[in-house]
Amino acid sequence: MIKYEKLENHVFVTKLAGFEHSKYIQYNETESKVRDDDIPLVQGQNIRNGNFVEKYNYYISKEISDNLSRSKLDKICILIPYVGSNLGEVGIFYHPYDCHMASNIAKIELIDDYFDIEYLKYYLQSPVGQGYLFIEKQGSAQPNITMQSIRNTLVLDKSKSEQTKIARILKEIDDKININFQIKNTLEEMMKTLYQRWFLEFEFPNEKGKPYKSSGGKMVWNSELKKEIPGCWKVLDLKNILNVITGKEDANFSTKNGKYSFFTCSNDILKCDTPAFRGKAILIAGNGDFNVKYFDGEFNAYQRTYVLIPKEEKYIGEIYINSINTINKFKKGSNGSIVKFITKGDVENIKILVPDNEILLLELNKILNIVQNYKNENEKLIELRNDLLPMLMNGQINVDDVQI
Of 141, 157, 173, which closes a domain? Predict the structure, then answer.
């Protein structure tokens, strides 16, 4: 027989009150620490994909935080953005140091040991848990989760040992995802550093293994780039090595259980049932987040997403890094105004440096391919976790039968 336990019987749920934010936080927050003991403000953006992200936009004084003890983060707890950014995400604040809640976060503190906090996090992430969180969702223009809907959540009543086993299985998968993500980020930074060193500073190894430019390599002035480049290198516009095209689909082309990746202007990659492109491609979001992605395989794309498939694969790594650098410059014009969209001409005129030694290009490609392998592995792990999560919670799968 399936049993449930009401969440509010075992937790304390609260948020920063609106008047507290207006009176104490709003006019005292700073974008960086003013005093050594200033407290970071935790916002919705700090809870992403079940994780707590230690990246802060604002700080307040310890004195103000101490006077708002109810909304201070001074112990391990669960955090849920209840309005705005990352609405309904669930993450654990492990209390590496004191922080304070901003105005769009709810916290859940355990008041006894009835629930394993990791189990509770995963339960609230599951379709059942999310259903309870959103059952009293309010607001049409800006929906929000009420504190009462959190308190009224009914949690599957399992023994503490079974809770711990379920949490351990799911956490093993998440830990692997996070490790892969960190490795991917490190490799991308290595790739950017290599590009900076070889293609911007021109300190690639010469025939003697010495840095080219500082070892007296021949340099010539290039009027297009307005800088010196190696004498044997060429400069091409992106349109010289590929055809800049866009996707043809609307945003609603995506499907929940599609087989193929569907690229829009969002950072997230959706799914669809029908591909339109195949190969190694760079995807540039023409508006919105202005992000740049690399993909290898069959996929489809939104109308405002530029699809770059070079005629020769050797250029793919340089196109990826150079597109990121160039798009970042496009985000703001020379007068500081925000660019609302990127045109086809902007993309076609991205400059590509062509070295005389193809190995320089291939080294970038090697790193990019390894990065993609980690992304592919994480996609499979996320799919596995998302499949296991509801089945472990509702008993479709016996926890002792799962091997990771």
Answer: 157
Q: For 331-380, how does the pLDDT look when each residue is reduced to its tens digit (9 = 90+)?
A: 766 444 566 788 999 999 999 999 999 999 999 999 999 999 999 999 99
Cα 375 to the center of its chain, rounded Å:
12
Q: Are strands 105-110 and 11-15 parallel, antiparallel or unpaired?
A: antiparallel
Number of domains in the chain: 3
| Percent of the chain residues topping a pLDDT of 70 | 96
Q: Which tokens is 104 given?
A: 């769009």
Q: Is 275 exposed, middle or buried (CB count within 10 Å of its CB: 0-12, 13-18, 19+)?
A: middle
Give 59's pLDDT tier (boundaries 50, 70, 90).
Answer: very high
Residue pair 365/98 in contact (Cβ under 8 Å)? The answer is: no
Q: Do 357 and 199 touch, CB atoms closer than 8 A?
A: no
Task: Look up the domain containing 201 and give its range.
Answer: 159-209+357-404
Residue 215 lies in a domain: no
* Of the candidates 388, 381, 379, the residue with the CA atom closest to the CA atom of residue 126: 388
Closest to 193 measured CA to CA, from 236, 185, 359: 185
- The domain spanning residue 262 has which CATH number? 3.90.220.20
Mean pLDDT of 117-129: 94
Q: Does residue 245 sit in the same domain as residue 181?
A: no
Alpha carbon distance 305, 344 (integer Å): 10
Over residues 242-251, the pLDDT tens digits come to 999 999 999 8
The DSSP secondary structure of 166-200, one letter per residue, reads HHHHHHHHHHHHHHHHHHHHHHHHHHHHHHIIIII
